Amino acid sequence: MNKQNLAWCNGLIGVIIFAGSLPATRIAVQGFSPEFLTVARAAIAAVLGFFCLLFYDQFKLKFPNYAQIKSLSIVALGVVIGFPLFTALALQSITSARAIVFVGLLPLSTAIFAVLRAHEKPSLIFWFFALLGSSFVIGFMLLDRPHLQLNHGDFYMIIAILLCGLGYAEGGQLSRKLGSWQVICWALLLAFPFMAIFSIYYFPTDLSHISLSAILGLVYVSAFSMLIGFFFWYKGLALGGIAKIGQIQLLQPFIGFLFSALFLGESISFVMFLVSISVLLCVSFAKKYA
């Protein structure tokens, strides 16, 4: 398998894993507060990441240098803290199916930060199709909520998408030097002291109302969304280019809608499906001209 095909395969596996994040978060916030879910998932993933680093380096941890630590701090801000927190807040007031549509803006966010942080230079044709795909998403939001009646959950999702794009671009760039899965493991460890403290602070006072499904949702977002998915995703970004591979994320609504329908019983409107088809066409052209 050549380098580009390997990059696309890794990126696709990462997207499939991430597609389950919003439905799993939706399930988890029915038993846990958004604050606890945010810090607990990162703390659990950090412990798992620590053992990955420990066993890989044969019990001799090789620490990143000062410049890499600064970059890891940005990764932690974007994907360890920012995206999980704001999506959890958003999913208290909007469905996971609606939140998934916002993921259509994530490739554009990632591409913008790929230029700002990784100094990539996609072509003008690429930007045309990237912007066109995002315009379909914005159009859906206006159609679904006429007269600009957007609620705070929508704004939380926009913040989440911006922070996630920053974390993806920074992590993809750093993966070329530090290693793909090492990036997320070190970013999680960097945030762990704060996450552990706040996990204790926000720990539920009453565990009797927490269902098994909420616990399984926490397990998924901790082990898969917060850790394993990044092993594949950052490797794909490092091998194939951040802006180019980032466009695979436009497949995420399809997979996410399926998960939402299967596990949450949420309805998928024709407009949602039409938007997904439109952005998929855009990403195919953006991929070609990246």
Question: Can you walk me through this structure?
Answer:
- This protein is an all-alpha fold and 290 residues long.
- Helix 1 runs parallel beside helix 12 and helix 4 packs antiparallel against helix 8.
- It is built from 13 helices and no strands.
- It is globular, with a radius of gyration of 18 Å.
- Helix content is 79%, strand content 0%.
- 54% of the residues are buried.
- The mean pLDDT is 86.
- The two termini are 21 Å apart.
Question: Which descriptors would you attach to this protein?
Answer:
290 residues, mainly alpha, 13 helices, globular
Question: Secondary-structure blueprint of this entry?
Answer:
Layout (H helix, E strand, L loop, with lengths): L2 H17 L1 H8 L5 H23 L9 H25 L5 H7 L3 H13 L5 H21 L7 H27 L1 H22 L10 H29 L1 H5 L5 H13 L5 H20 L1
Helix pairs in contact: 1-10, 1-12, 2-5, 2-10, 2-12, 3-4, 3-9, 3-10, 4-8, 4-9, 5-12, 6-8, 7-13, 8-9, 8-10, 9-10
Radius of gyration: 18 Å
Could you give a short account of the major beta sheet? Answer: none
Distance N terminus to C terminus?
21 Å
Put simply, the count of helices is 13
**Total beta-strand segments:** 0
Written as H for each helix and E for each strand, in order along the chain, the element string is HHHHHHHHHHHHH
Shape: globular
Would you identify the regions where 5 or more consecutive residues have pLDDT less than 50? none
Helicity range? over 70%
Classify the secondary structure makeup into a structural class.
Answer: mainly alpha
Compute the average pLDDT: 86
